[in-house]
Amino acid sequence: MALEERDFPGVAFQLLVPAGAVNDPEGLEGASTLLEGWLWKGAGELDARGLAQALDALGVRRSSGAGLEYTAFAASFLPEVLEEVFRLYALLLTRPRLPEEGFEAVRSVALQSLLSQEDQPARKLFSELRRRVFLSPHGRDPLGREEDLKRATPKALREDFGRRYTPRGAVLAVAGGVSWERLLGALEPLALWEGEEVLYPPPLLASPERFALRRPTAQVQIGLVYPDVGPEDPGFYAARLALEVLSGGMSSRLFTEVREKRGLVYAVSAFPAGVKGQGLLMAYAGTTRDRAKETLAVMLQEMERLAEGVTEEELARAKVGLRTALVMGDESIRTRASSMARDLYMLGRVRPLAEIEARVEGTTLAEVNAFLRAHPYRDPWVGLLGEVEDV
Amino acid sequence: MALEERDFPGVAFQLLVPAGAVNDPEGLEGASTLLEGWLWKGAGELDARGLAQALDALGVRRSSGAGLEYTAFAASFLPEVLEEVFRLYALLLTRPRLPEEGFEAVRSVALQSLLSQEDQPARKLFSELRRRVFLSPHGRDPLGREEDLKRATPKALREDFGRRYTPRGAVLAVAGGVSWERLLGALEPLALWEGEEVLYPPPLLASPERFALRRPTAQVQIGLVYPDVGPEDPGFYAARLALEVLSGGMSSRLFTEVREKRGLVYAVSAFPAGVKGQGLLMAYAGTTRDRAKETLAVMLQEMERLAEGVTEEELARAKVGLRTALVMGDESIRTRASSMARDLYMLGRVRPLAEIEARVEGTTLAEVNAFLRAHPYRDPWVGLLGEVEDV
């Protein structure tokens, strides 16, 4: 748990519960998604409608959803309702109704959500890429599988709830206008929450491969995945700065080479997408069929060229870019609560903003280039989706 | 122009230039989009690369794009680079190179962007809906039309630039850690910017109709459009509160009736989408083919039921919801600069947050219900996209 107190007339929290696709029960992929939906069907004295009305009456802006590694509950509200908000979330976690009669609507919504992915080509491609990148369950899609969603029973999910909705391994991050003392008081109803530790499988990579998914789409989607270092690695900040050189602004290499010079695409980007214990770098572009080959070639080349190093000028731009992003991102307590929670999950501690800034600032050109020589971005998983024959 | 000074180590601005799809030249739809892209190909002493590098070296986080009513340039950065940032944007506006050799790449990117819409069913549906809602050019898509993008010449666009990239009708909103005095100094290079007033056509609605676009998508997309009041209307806050009752939280009517009770969809929402001089309310849902009919029926019914009024309890929840959203949205200087600019464009003045809060708070149940009786949400434009026969 962590709090960052601020002089601000609002509070935001992010709660991570250790129930994600990676530890969904075998044969029940999507269980975390079903559970998260079912949870809102009532808790304690409140039915679904009562619960929704109670939170809306407090003005709580909230979102929640099951992801790959955990289920995240985010909420923001005015400080005066802090105690009542945590009382309701404690009810949700310790006394959910999980009522039989609400279950089919939850299953139906989950199936709709899975189906809607078929109409989102880029999302579909990266879901398929992940399946091929990991031998471990880290390749799963949090939306689950149709057959598993259809197979799920209220009984199996209630057992699963008891096993995975547990404070051991849960993470809570709070930012905004509230003191430690008051926060601790507000969290008292959560003292009733109990459970055992949940096991997480270790991530395990498959061998790189190339594949094409034929679909009748207008554009061809291109996705690349490279192994990378995570925030626990000494090379993390070097990698982060290299990524900024690659894809951080309009003068970044990918934007310049793929879009500006050649007009090959409307959108091209690279972004970190790792899991705990296994960093990953992904890259994306969408283009026309007749430009797909050239686009892919330029992307692969720019990734590989990183091993030759970046220039002093590029590094300076990357540093100022990251510093500005830190200052700007920092102003939102919601953003901050979210990255604090991610830090707690990944590293077991929150990195203060001053630490991140100092590490970015302190990383030298020699360090970045030594890192890039030692960790070349080569031999990725390559996926194409669209009217394509082969890779 | 407007400034909201804040004690914050960052500055954000939003600049609106009066070049949007509504005043794209006849036969040249997409001209604003082409111009915005072409603009970044160099200005004054800087070529495309030099310009991108100069802004990235200052750590400017920026985005820009042509929309329906104007082209928006947004930027955020640290206060110490304020003068240099405005010097570069002034260069862009007063001395763009618009170089022949960069033009084909710009056209290519615009065509890619238009093509990518074909793979986004919901976006495609609303683009088609807009075309049918308006008799005036407000039905255009800012991405333009393929034939027009292909027809555009550097000469025609340079003329268009001279006509529409003008300070008359442009809007600048700034928020963050900078004083009026300093801002005025930084804006001096913009004194060179000149031009005539740009004409905007008045919005003109067509008659409501229903249509279906057959596409081989997994889901059926449903879109509704209703005429509504804009921010200049005395009924605006009543309408805004009614929208919150309809679609503002988990206890909102649409979410409860369409998703929670019936599990018909994963996503359902209603949102304002008007233009200057003509408010619009739009509603969206995506569902399976066999549930499309029921989903549409429930949506139409909930919209029509608003005429019967909302309850005291619903209104109270709507007010606290909007108030919390105001506090939370307000924290970001980028969000604030953007809504200040929109206010300047729509109303000719910025509504202080305190005014919005007071108007929300002061709107009574009687006022909301009188508004809803007088402005029933009936007879919408209805569009479906997917494997459907008819509406």
UniProtKB/TrEMBL annotation, chains A, B:
<dbReference type="InterPro" id="IPR011765">
    <property type="entry name" value="Pept_M16_N"/>
</dbReference>
<feature type="domain" description="Peptidase M16 C-terminal">
    <location>
        <begin position="153"/>
        <end position="319"/>
    </location>
</feature>
<dbReference type="InterPro" id="IPR007863">
    <property type="entry name" value="Peptidase_M16_C"/>
</dbReference>
<protein>
    <submittedName>
        <fullName>Zinc protease</fullName>
        <ecNumber>3.4.99.-</ecNumber>
    </submittedName>
</protein>
<keyword id="KW-0645">Protease</keyword>
<keyword id="KW-0378">Hydrolase</keyword>
<dbReference type="InterPro" id="IPR050361">
    <property type="entry name" value="MPP/UQCRC_Complex"/>
</dbReference>
<dbReference type="GO" id="GO:0008233">
    <property type="term" value="F:peptidase activity"/>
</dbReference>
<dbReference type="Pfam" id="PF05193">
    <property type="entry name" value="Peptidase_M16_C"/>
</dbReference>
<dbReference type="Pfam" id="PF00675">
    <property type="entry name" value="Peptidase_M16"/>
</dbReference>
<feature type="domain" description="Peptidase M16 N-terminal">
    <location>
        <begin position="11"/>
        <end position="130"/>
    </location>
</feature>
<dbReference type="GO" id="GO:0006508">
    <property type="term" value="P:proteolysis"/>
</dbReference>
<dbReference type="InterPro" id="IPR011249">
    <property type="entry name" value="Metalloenz_LuxS/M16"/>
</dbReference>
